[in-house]
Amino acid sequence: MRRIIQSIAAAVIATTMWCAPSFADDVSLLDGVTARAGDNPTVEAGKFKKDPPWVIGMSHFGVNANTWTVQVAHEAEAAAAKDKRIAKFILLDAGFDQKKQVADIEDLIAQKVDAIIVQPVTSTSADASIAKAVAAGIPVIVHTGRIESDAFTTEIQGGAEHFGKVMGDFLVKELGGKGNIWVLRGLAGHPEDTNRYNGLLQALKGTDVKIIAEEHGDWQYDKAKKLCETLYLNNPEVDGIWSSGADMTRACVDVFKQFGAKIPPITGEGNNGFFGQWIADGFKSISAEYSPAQGAAGIRAAVALLEGKELKKHYDYNPPGWDIEKVKKYYRDDLSANVWWPSELPEDKLKEFYAKK
């Protein structure tokens, strides 16, 4: 009798383990991404569970804004194609137009997609549409830009303040706590630009490092090159440069080389073209990490929810900055300046999109 009871108990335990829901800690979204500490609600297991095949939609704030945003789209598409349970992946481009993003999300709701990934144009542009989607039973994953509403299902946020502070701390250390810097910001009004800048201000607080020029280069090479040329011609005496994006960093480095001037300490990020410059020219820098594979992480979060897994509402992506030795491990001389690291794109896709012509 005792053996029978033990056998039944074992069977019950085994069945319970088999049927137990997956918890938030079981889901790996992206290297360096962790659940936010403190008050962090749980999206309960099974709430959005649906049998495949699935249709997943994505509202991108602006695919062609720069080379990084293009790669985010590639990373999301590759991740979706890899999962055969995803029957269709619909990528819509808002083109930095708030009204277009609202219309795009409304379109995805009308198509009754199973999950929606949103990269917000601004901190408020998509709030009402996101709330409408969730009310319709569609989970919404937000990344690459925070919103003021908490109506979304889960978010994966690269810590923009952390990103900006990593760069700011580097400059403060290099300059010994005093000196004059230029600041190259991203797209005016975009939450990522605002929060990266706030991280810089945190780093400068209590120091004698002064901002003597501040311009928005929109994270674009061409615009930043013109800005840096103007800044240099107006006053070339600058001790360091804080750049919110690697395309802008590359532009400023090229300007200093164009004028035959010494390149001051300048911040960068994980762009292959910038890595090549840094290795070749040997200036002082740091690479803040902001992987375009956040696009793939959004797909994984959507899949986890549709599988019925438990997720946390807030996830943070706050990796440390890269030094020149780590950069050398990632740099690819056979690929163009337009690829960003770290990437999850398979080798064939890296060569398809980024092989040097």
TrEMBL record:
Predominant location category: periplasm
Domain Periplasmic binding protein: from-to ranges: 64-310
Record bears the keyword Transmembrane helix: no
Listed Gene3D superfamilies: 3.40.50.2300
A GO MF label: carbohydrate binding
Protein localization: Periplasm
UniProt cross-references to Pfam families, sorted A to Z: Peripla_BP_4 (PF13407)
Keywords: Signal
Record bears the keyword Signal: yes
Domain of life: Bacteria
GO CC annotations, alphabetized: outer membrane-bounded periplasmic space
Signal peptide residue numbers: 1-24
Family statement: Belongs to the bacterial solute-binding protein 2 family.
Protein name, UniProt field: ABC transporter, periplasmic solute-binding protein
Species annotation: Mesorhizobium plurifarium
